Amino acid sequence: MNRLMIFCTVLGMMIAAQLQPAAAQSVRIKDLVEFDGVRSNDLVGYGLVVGLDGTGDGLRNAPFTEEIMTNILERLGVNVTGEQFRPKNVAAVFVTGRLPPFARSGGQIDVTVSAIGDAKSLLGGTLIMTPLNAADGQIYAVAQGTVIAGGAAAEGDAARVVQGVPTSGMIPAGARIEREVDFDFSELSSLRLALREPDFTTAARIEQVINRAFPGRIARMSDSGTISVDLFNAGTRSPAHAVAQIENLAVEPERRARVVVDQRSGTIVMGRDVRISRVAVSQGNLTLRIEEAPIAVQPNPFSEGETVVIPRTEAEVAEEPGIGLAEVPGGTSLSEVIAGLNALGVSPRDMIDILKSIKAAGALHAEFVVM
């Protein structure tokens, strides 16, 4: 029995088995949408890391490090005007963090510290008090603490080894919140739900589920990515209680048929709704091998002449047996085709080429994403 017959037999057995479709799983609304107004805010600051073991910025190449160090020392009452100092244990850094929604003064958040000069490592350094600003230019937090670097570096006279990224690290709970975002959630009379993956069917199902859980029709779908909720008529004690009830309602999301392939690793990921129309598939492998075997010709002993290298090339083209012309019935799921190709021992990269050809023929009814 040849490979073509095996392929057709495997596909025929899978189709005849009439496999039951996988039961759809319900997902909480909180995992499908973003609540308007309930969001985090990015923070950024410019600071100085001290206490490094000779791995800091070279001040000749990073004059901004000397400038900020001078400013910090003068604020502390140390006059360094006109002084020439070249320490190697300091580094200028950017400090980034994220202010979570409804964060209150006195709370703590994690921050990431990244070198911006030519420092070799931040391992063992300490971040000096650094204010963190939001997009409006206001200071919302202040960061300070010991940097936990994400790597290590070692070097000798002729070699250097770097593991990870020693010029970047983080400070857990390294920033304290000093200012709150001016937002009163309890005063909201309406709320918009924004789908992370807009889809009309999913938005309609969310609307139906919310309207069944609350008296009256408080939810209305505006488009494929937005559902408006009337919190004033939700019949709850507060908008927060209404959102707490809404976000735990279960909905069956509708996903687009999609096939994602990674050519570097040969990974193929597909949805259960991917279908293939009637199509014929034929695949073969062509191998080209070229070898160089030059020959050196030398003159006779005690005679005039030079050694000559004569090139000699061997080229060979071999075609390995692949999949013959196989017809895939219409309505077959892609998972069945993949299972049949796996049974034949087709490599992942050849499988990706086959899927590309099926998509180009217009028989693969799904969004084809190549990474």
Q: Can you characterise this structure?
A:
This protein has 371 residues and is of the alpha+beta class. It has three domains: 3-23 and 257-291 and 317-370, no CATH class; 27-37 and 183-251, Gyrase A, domain 2, CATH 3.30.1360; 41-177, no CATH class. 19% of the residues lie in helices and 40% in strands. It is built from six helices and 23 strands. It has helices at residues 3-16, 63-75, 200-213, 239-246, 334-343, 348-360; strands at 27-28, 33-35, 41-50, 90-99, 108-115, 126-133, 139-146, 148-155, 160-177, 190-195, 219-223, 226-230, 250-251, 258-262, 267-270, 275-276, 279-292, 295-297, 308-310, 313-328, 332-333, 364-365, 367-370. The strands form seven sheets. The chain has a six-stranded antiparallel β-barrel. A four-stranded antiparallel sheet has the order 2-10-12-11, with helices on one face. A three-stranded mixed sheet has the order 15-14-23, with helices on one face. A hairpin with a 5-residue loop joins β6 and β7 (139-146). α1 (3-16) packs antiparallel against α5.
